[in-house]
Amino acid sequence: MLRLEGVNAFYGDLQALHDVTFEVYEREIAAVVGANAAGKTTTLRVISGTLPSRTGRVSFQDQDLAEVPAHRRVDLGIVQVPEGRRLFPFMTVLENLLLGAHTQGARAVRERTLEEVYALFPVLADRRVQLAGSLSGGEQQMLAMGRALMARPRLLMLDEPTLGLAPVFVKRIFEIVRTINESGVTVLLVEQNVRQALALAHRACVLENGRLTLTGPAQAVLADDRLKRAYLGL
Protein backbone atom coordinates (compact mmCIF):
# COMPACT_ATOMS: atom_id res chain seq x y z
CA MET A 1 0.00 0.00 0.00
CA LEU A 2 2.72 2.46 1.07
CA ARG A 3 6.37 2.13 0.15
CA LEU A 4 9.43 4.21 0.97
CA GLU A 5 12.54 3.48 -1.09
CA GLY A 6 15.92 4.97 -0.28
CA VAL A 7 14.44 8.09 1.31
CA ASN A 8 16.83 10.81 2.45
CA ALA A 9 15.41 13.89 4.16
CA PHE A 10 17.03 17.04 5.50
CA TYR A 11 16.31 20.04 7.70
CA GLY A 12 18.56 22.57 6.04
CA ASP A 13 22.00 20.95 5.99
CA LEU A 14 21.13 18.47 8.73
CA GLN A 15 20.28 15.03 7.40
CA ALA A 16 17.38 13.52 9.36
CA LEU A 17 16.71 10.34 7.35
CA HIS A 18 19.36 8.15 5.73
CA ASP A 19 18.31 5.82 2.92
CA VAL A 20 15.10 4.67 4.66
CA THR A 21 13.25 1.83 2.95
CA PHE A 22 10.17 0.05 4.27
CA GLU A 23 6.65 -0.93 3.26
CA VAL A 24 3.25 -0.77 4.94
CA TYR A 25 0.72 -3.35 3.81
CA GLU A 26 -2.99 -2.77 3.43
CA ARG A 27 -5.17 -3.32 6.52
CA GLU A 28 -2.24 -3.77 8.90
CA ILE A 29 -0.96 -1.81 11.87
CA ALA A 30 2.69 -0.91 11.36
CA ALA A 31 4.64 0.66 14.22
CA VAL A 32 7.67 2.92 13.88
CA VAL A 33 9.65 3.06 17.11
CA GLY A 34 12.94 4.54 18.25
CA ALA A 35 14.45 6.95 20.73
CA ASN A 36 13.87 10.70 20.66
CA ALA A 37 15.24 12.36 17.50
CA ALA A 38 15.47 8.99 15.74
CA GLY A 39 13.53 10.30 12.73
CA LYS A 40 10.05 8.97 13.47
CA THR A 41 8.10 12.21 13.06
CA THR A 42 10.26 13.15 10.09
CA THR A 43 9.23 9.91 8.41
CA LEU A 44 5.55 10.78 8.84
CA ARG A 45 6.17 14.28 7.52
CA VAL A 46 7.80 12.90 4.38
CA ILE A 47 4.84 10.58 3.81
CA SER A 48 2.26 13.33 4.40
CA GLY A 49 4.16 15.73 2.15
CA THR A 50 4.91 18.45 4.69
CA LEU A 51 8.65 17.73 4.34
CA PRO A 52 9.95 16.75 0.90
CA SER A 53 12.53 14.01 0.64
CA ARG A 54 15.70 15.12 -1.11
CA THR A 55 16.20 11.74 -2.76
CA GLY A 56 14.35 8.45 -2.81
CA ARG A 57 10.77 7.54 -3.62
CA VAL A 58 7.50 7.48 -1.69
CA SER A 59 4.59 5.68 -3.34
CA PHE A 60 1.01 5.02 -2.26
CA GLN A 61 -1.14 2.45 -4.02
CA ASP A 62 1.61 2.29 -6.68
CA GLN A 63 1.39 6.05 -7.31
CA ASP A 64 4.60 8.05 -6.99
CA LEU A 65 3.92 10.93 -4.59
CA ALA A 66 6.84 13.11 -5.66
CA GLU A 67 4.63 15.65 -7.42
CA VAL A 68 1.61 15.29 -5.11
CA PRO A 69 1.33 18.17 -2.59
CA ALA A 70 0.29 17.53 1.00
CA HIS A 71 -3.36 18.56 0.59
CA ARG A 72 -3.76 16.26 -2.41
CA ARG A 73 -2.35 13.36 -0.43
CA VAL A 74 -5.29 13.76 1.93
CA ASP A 75 -7.55 13.35 -1.11
CA LEU A 76 -5.79 10.03 -1.77
CA GLY A 77 -6.57 8.89 1.77
CA ILE A 78 -3.32 9.68 3.62
CA VAL A 79 -4.27 11.40 6.88
CA GLN A 80 -2.02 12.28 9.82
CA VAL A 81 -2.83 12.98 13.46
CA PRO A 82 0.14 15.13 14.52
CA GLU A 83 1.89 15.01 17.85
CA GLY A 84 0.35 17.61 20.13
CA ARG A 85 -3.14 17.24 18.53
CA ARG A 86 -3.19 20.77 17.03
CA LEU A 87 -6.85 21.41 17.59
CA PHE A 88 -8.60 24.75 17.32
CA PRO A 89 -9.14 25.40 21.05
CA PHE A 90 -11.70 28.20 20.68
CA MET A 91 -13.90 26.20 18.34
CA THR A 92 -16.36 23.57 19.53
CA VAL A 93 -15.85 19.84 19.36
CA LEU A 94 -18.33 19.63 16.49
CA GLU A 95 -16.67 22.46 14.57
CA ASN A 96 -13.28 20.77 14.90
CA LEU A 97 -14.72 17.49 13.66
CA LEU A 98 -16.41 19.06 10.65
CA LEU A 99 -13.12 20.66 9.61
CA GLY A 100 -11.79 17.15 9.03
CA ALA A 101 -14.36 16.47 6.31
CA HIS A 102 -12.92 18.97 3.86
CA THR A 103 -12.31 16.76 0.84
CA GLN A 104 -15.05 16.31 -1.73
CA GLY A 105 -15.48 12.63 -0.96
CA ALA A 106 -15.56 13.20 2.80
CA ARG A 107 -18.10 16.01 2.52
CA ALA A 108 -20.46 13.77 0.59
CA VAL A 109 -20.77 11.35 3.53
CA ARG A 110 -20.08 13.80 6.35
CA GLU A 111 -23.18 13.11 8.42
CA ARG A 112 -22.72 9.34 8.27
CA THR A 113 -19.06 9.65 9.22
CA LEU A 114 -19.93 11.96 12.09
CA GLU A 115 -22.25 9.33 13.54
CA GLU A 116 -19.51 6.72 13.18
CA VAL A 117 -17.07 8.99 15.02
CA TYR A 118 -19.59 9.61 17.80
CA ALA A 119 -20.13 5.85 18.12
CA LEU A 120 -16.38 5.34 18.49
CA PHE A 121 -15.94 8.32 20.84
CA PRO A 122 -19.21 8.79 22.78
CA VAL A 123 -17.65 11.53 24.91
CA LEU A 124 -17.35 13.70 21.79
CA ALA A 125 -21.08 13.39 21.17
CA ASP A 126 -21.76 14.38 24.76
CA ARG A 127 -19.49 17.42 24.45
CA ARG A 128 -20.14 18.45 20.87
CA VAL A 129 -20.88 22.10 21.81
CA GLN A 130 -18.00 22.37 24.29
CA LEU A 131 -14.85 24.28 23.33
CA ALA A 132 -12.04 21.93 22.32
CA GLY A 133 -9.57 23.74 24.56
CA SER A 134 -11.61 22.88 27.65
CA LEU A 135 -11.35 19.11 27.14
CA SER A 136 -8.94 16.91 29.07
CA GLY A 137 -5.78 15.71 27.35
CA GLY A 138 -7.24 12.30 26.62
CA GLU A 139 -10.44 13.80 25.26
CA GLN A 140 -8.45 16.16 23.05
CA GLN A 141 -6.55 13.20 21.62
CA MET A 142 -9.84 11.48 20.87
CA LEU A 143 -11.02 14.64 19.14
CA ALA A 144 -7.84 14.82 17.04
CA MET A 145 -8.33 11.20 15.99
CA GLY A 146 -12.02 11.78 15.32
CA ARG A 147 -11.22 14.80 13.14
CA ALA A 148 -8.80 12.65 11.12
CA LEU A 149 -11.43 9.95 10.67
CA MET A 150 -13.82 12.55 9.27
CA ALA A 151 -11.52 12.67 6.23
CA ARG A 152 -12.26 8.97 5.52
CA PRO A 153 -8.59 7.86 5.59
CA ARG A 154 -7.26 4.76 3.91
CA LEU A 155 -3.95 5.22 5.74
CA LEU A 156 -4.13 6.80 9.21
CA MET A 157 -0.81 8.00 10.62
CA LEU A 158 -0.69 8.58 14.37
CA ASP A 159 2.22 10.50 15.88
CA GLU A 160 2.63 9.74 19.61
CA PRO A 161 -1.12 9.45 20.32
CA THR A 162 -0.64 8.53 24.00
CA LEU A 163 2.04 11.11 24.85
CA GLY A 164 1.36 12.67 28.25
CA LEU A 165 -1.91 10.81 28.83
CA ALA A 166 -3.08 9.10 32.00
CA PRO A 167 -2.90 5.28 31.94
CA VAL A 168 -6.67 4.92 31.62
CA PHE A 169 -6.61 7.00 28.43
CA VAL A 170 -3.54 5.18 27.09
CA LYS A 171 -5.38 1.88 27.33
CA ARG A 172 -8.46 3.34 25.66
CA ILE A 173 -6.49 4.93 22.81
CA PHE A 174 -4.84 1.60 21.98
CA GLU A 175 -8.22 -0.13 22.02
CA ILE A 176 -9.58 2.49 19.63
CA VAL A 177 -6.61 2.11 17.27
CA ARG A 178 -7.33 -1.61 17.07
CA THR A 179 -11.01 -0.94 16.37
CA ILE A 180 -10.13 1.55 13.62
CA ASN A 181 -7.83 -0.99 12.02
CA GLU A 182 -10.45 -3.74 12.23
CA SER A 183 -12.81 -1.45 10.30
CA GLY A 184 -10.41 -1.67 7.35
CA VAL A 185 -8.15 1.36 7.88
CA THR A 186 -4.40 0.82 7.59
CA VAL A 187 -2.54 2.38 10.53
CA LEU A 188 1.03 3.68 10.74
CA LEU A 189 1.78 4.26 14.41
CA VAL A 190 4.64 6.25 15.95
CA GLU A 191 4.54 5.59 19.66
CA GLN A 192 6.66 6.02 22.80
CA ASN A 193 5.02 3.10 24.64
CA VAL A 194 7.07 0.51 22.80
CA ARG A 195 5.79 -2.68 24.40
CA GLN A 196 2.16 -1.69 24.00
CA ALA A 197 2.72 -0.49 20.45
CA LEU A 198 4.43 -3.72 19.42
CA ALA A 199 1.76 -5.79 21.16
CA LEU A 200 -0.80 -4.00 19.00
CA ALA A 201 1.10 -3.87 15.70
CA HIS A 202 1.45 -6.56 13.07
CA ARG A 203 4.86 -5.35 11.92
CA ALA A 204 7.40 -2.82 13.16
CA CYS A 205 10.37 -0.73 12.09
CA VAL A 206 13.11 0.58 14.38
CA LEU A 207 14.79 3.88 13.56
CA GLU A 208 18.12 4.88 15.07
CA ASN A 209 19.66 8.26 14.25
CA GLY A 210 17.62 8.47 11.07
CA ARG A 211 18.57 4.99 9.88
CA LEU A 212 16.34 1.94 9.68
CA THR A 213 18.10 -0.69 11.78
CA LEU A 214 15.43 -3.36 12.15
CA THR A 215 12.14 -4.33 10.55
CA GLY A 216 9.92 -7.39 10.75
CA PRO A 217 6.98 -8.93 12.63
CA ALA A 218 6.27 -6.88 15.73
CA GLN A 219 6.87 -9.68 18.23
CA ALA A 220 10.19 -10.58 16.61
CA VAL A 221 11.27 -6.94 16.78
CA LEU A 222 10.29 -6.77 20.45
CA ALA A 223 12.55 -9.74 21.23
CA ASP A 224 15.52 -8.43 19.23
CA ASP A 225 18.50 -6.98 21.11
CA ARG A 226 18.81 -4.25 18.48
CA LEU A 227 15.64 -2.69 19.87
CA LYS A 228 17.35 -2.26 23.25
CA ARG A 229 20.36 -0.71 21.53
CA ALA A 230 18.17 1.78 19.70
CA TYR A 231 16.70 3.00 23.00
CA LEU A 232 19.50 2.47 25.48
CA GLY A 233 22.65 2.55 23.37
CA LEU A 234 23.61 -0.93 24.57
Q: Supply the number of helical segments.
A: 11
Cα-atom Rg, whole angstroms? 17 Å
Would you tell me which CATH topology of the largest domain applies?
A: Rossmann fold
What string gives the helices and strands in order? Answer: EEEHEEHEHHHHHEHEHEEHH
Number of strands: 10
Please tell me what the overall shape is.
Answer: globular
Helix content: 40-55%
Low-confidence spans: pLDDT under 50, at least 5 residues? none
CATH class value of the largest domain = Alpha Beta
How does the helix and strand content classify structurally? alpha/beta
Please tell me about this protein's structure:
The protein has 234 residues and is α/β, with parallel strands linked by helices. It folds into two domains: 156 residues, P-loop containing nucleotide triphosphate hydrolases (Rossmann fold, 3-Layer(aba) Sandwich), CATH 3.40.50; 66 residues, no CATH class. Helices cover 41% and strands 26% of the residues. Strands 6-7-8-3-9-10 form a six-stranded mixed beta sheet, sandwiched between helices. A four-stranded antiparallel beta sheet has the order 2-1-4-5, covered by helices on one side. A hairpin with a 2-residue loop joins strand 9 and strand 10. Helix 3 runs parallel beside helix 7. It is globular, with a radius of gyration of 17 Å.
